[in-house]
Each structure stands twice: as C-alpha cells, then as structure tokens.
Amino acid sequence: xSKIYYFILCLCCVFFLxxxxxxxxxxxxxxxxxxxxxxxxxxxxxxLWNGLFNILIDSKILNKIGFIFEKYFKFIYPNxxxxxxxxxxxxLNFLFxxxxxxxxxxxxxxxxxxxxxxxxxxxxxEKFIILNIGCFTFVPxxxxxxLLKYNFQIDLPFLICSFxxxxxxxxxxxxxxxxxxxx
Length: 183
Description:
Blueprint (H helix, E strand, L loop, with lengths): L1 H16 L3 H38 L2 H8 L1 H7 L8 H14 L5 H15 L3 H12 L7 H9 L6 H25 L3
Helix pairs in contact: 2-6, 3-5, 5-6, 6-7, 7-9
C-alpha cells in the first residue's frame, strides 16, 4: 500500500514541476474558497436546527409529538421508556427525518446513539441506524431546497412519488429490523 502513496506523491511532483503553477495555485484557492463557503452554509444550518431542537425539548412540545407516535416507538423500541431522554431524542430525530430536514437530524442522531451507548443498548443502536437510513419523509425539505437552487420545477407528482418511495423504504427497514431482532 505504501508503494501506491509513493507513486501518487511522485506523480504530483512531476505534475507540479511540468505544469503551469498559476493554474495549480488558482485551483487550490478556488477549492479552499468553495470549502469555506460550504462549511459556513452547513454550519449555519446546524446551528439553526440545534436551536430549534433545544426549543422543542425545553417547551415540552416533544412529549406531545412523542405521544402521537407512541405505538410506533413501542413497536420498534420496546425497552426504551417514554419518559427517558433517549426517547425524546428518538422522537426528535424521527420528526426531523419525517420533515426531510437532513442536517437537522444529525445532532439528534448523535445524541440518540450516545444515550443508547451509555445504556449498553447495542441492538437498539443497530435498529436506530437501520431505521435512520431508511427514514420516512413526508416532505423532503432538504431535497426541495437543492432542487429549487438549480431551478428544478417541483410538482405534485414528484412530491407524491418521493412520499411513496420513502414510505416503502421505511416499511422495508422496519421489516428488516423486526425480522433480525425478533418480534
């Protein structure tokens, strides 16, 4: 494996010596500029969603939302108490996924995994990861944002199709979790 790295290093040196240095420099600066813009955009979204996350927890709205989906969570996670902190994080992550807020669910996903790890719920961590990958999205807000950025026309058939696809994927992931982790 180390031979590959030496080969790549030598190739870069040859390219550097026999190419236009200004083009190389411009490429590096452009890549750095794009990376910083992306980090700022993502950072703002993460801060926004974390703020919303804390408001939902502090205002006890999460408990009311959790009550609506109580049977679903009892079916999937029978060992997790509804009054526990990990239950609130599960509900919040489900809510972010349900609304299609991609980055919004990242911090709650990490908190769910950490809480489940603290309680040695390895099976529940595996279930959570499988269900998070196959999440059900009612309105894919992140996807719509990207499509609107590139002037894509969003119509009702597209939304219905995305709804049905995510529903089917989620049902398959629930089936997989229930089959592999015993009813």
